[in-house]
Design a protein that fits this description.
One of its GO terms (biological process) is regulation of DNA-templated transcription. With 362 residues, the protein is an alpha+beta fold. 45% of the residues lie in helices and 19% in strands. The chain starts with 7 loop residues before the first helix and ends in a 7-residue tail after the last helix.
Length: 362
């Protein structure tokens, strides 16, 4: 049997993007070999999980309970199979074992299965996969040769799948961490169009008008002045990947900053080439909301909370007093009460206490 007949290899390499996984490949393999059913079993990144895929009529409903209750897990000696070699059903059974002698008589023959060919592959990180074709007279040496020829391609497909799953896991963990810190990122092409972004940025678009996804997916600040500045900055980075990163304040209430940096190792995998990455840091709440939260958290008076929030933003006490319309002497008296109620021993510690309290993830 030729490997490329009927798009078998293409289906194998595309199967990792399907749901259910490898459905077309297993169905094509079943049709090619005349098998009653084909199956692919592997252990993904989580070693405790087992993925079992099949094409064709499912095994009898009693088969699962038979394996679990009567025989226990994995009656076949799968782990003893030599990697890359096709095995017959007889080779996988130990005739001296009562369990193996009973297996053809109990779950296999009622399906019309008289033989099976199975092969084991191991991708470089150690994930095992077993591919098998089960059926009648058509399951012979030609099927063994086909599975042997498929083995290196199955190994590559499993390696790609494992790498993709691990990258998905890393991406999920990174996104969660960014979200808890009120950070997000998005990549931009030379026309300031959004190519990719974290989920946190999408949520930010929904709750604020400071930034939005504009026409043709263009990143559009609310301020025309900032829009022109950002557009010119991204164009500059498209022309010069060694440009210096630039920070821009988008809003002071609620606070929101953006840091735009050129992408030096530019990807060719996307439809548009990203030239810049923008890191967004923004508070979910207004200053009034934050002051209410400080009142609840530390028992401050509203006037004290307003000063505490200003100090936590790094504003000098004299400037904070002027912004709040109070004298510097009044602000100093407030600050003493703030330090007593929060347990801070100075301005630096107050900043740390406020910014590392539960307000950071609120």
């Amino acid at each position: 049997m030729r490997l490329d007949d009927g798009g078998l290899l293409a289906a194998l390499h595309e199967g990792m993007f399907q749901q259910p996984l490898w459905h077309d490949f297993l169905e094509k393999l079943r049709m090619r070999t005349g098998a009653i059913y084909t199956t692919l079993v592997f252990r993904p990144v989580d070693e405790d999980a087992i993925v079992e895929l099949h094409a064709g009529p499912p095994p009898p409903t009693h088969l699962h309970s038979l394996f679990i209750e009567k025989y226990g897990r994995d009656p076949f000696p799968y782990r003893h199979m030599r990697e890359g070699r096709a095995y017959t059903l007889a080779e996988l059974l130990e005739q001296s074992a009562p369990v193996d002698r009973a297996l053809p008589r109990d779950p296999v023959l009622p399906q019309g299965i008289t033989d099976m060919r199975s092969i084991r592959v191991t991708e470089p990180s150690g994930v095992d996969g077993w591919l098998a074709c089960a059926g009648g007279a058509s399951i012979g040496s030609a099927v063994s040769a086909l599975l042997t020829g498929l083995a290196p391609h199955l190994r590559i497909a499993l390696r790609s799948f494992v790498a993709l799953e691990r990258e998905k896991l890393r991406s999920t963990l990174t996104t969660e961490a960014f979200g808890r810190l009120n950070f997000g990122w998005l990549t931009l092409d030379a026309r300031c169009r959004i190519i990719d972004m974290t989920a946190h940025v999408e949520q930010l678009f929904q709750r604020t008008s400071v930034l939005r996804r504009g026409r043709y997916d263009r990143l559009t600040p609310e301020s025309p002045l900032i829009d022109r500045e950002l557009t010119a900055l991204v164009k500059q980075m498209a022309d010069d990947p060694d440009s210096r990163p630039r920070a821009i304040n988008l809003s002071r209430d609620p606070w929101m900053d953006i840091l735009v940096s050129p992408i030096r190792g530019r990807s060719v995998s996307a439809g548009s080439t990203p030239v810049a990455i923008a890191y967004l840091s923004g508070d979910r709440w207004s200053q009034a909301d934050r002051c209410e939260q400080l009142v609840e958290l530390f028992g401050l008076l509203p006037s004290e909370a307003r000063l505490a929030w200003a100090i936590a933003q790094g504003i000098p006490i004299s400037e904070a007093a002027a912004n709040l319309g109070i004298t510097v002497e009044t602000a100093r008296n407030y600050s003493k009460k703030i330090y007593a109620k929060t347990g801070a021993r100075g301005q630096a510690e107050l900043v740390r206490i406020v910014l590392t309290s539960v307000l950071a993830i609120a």
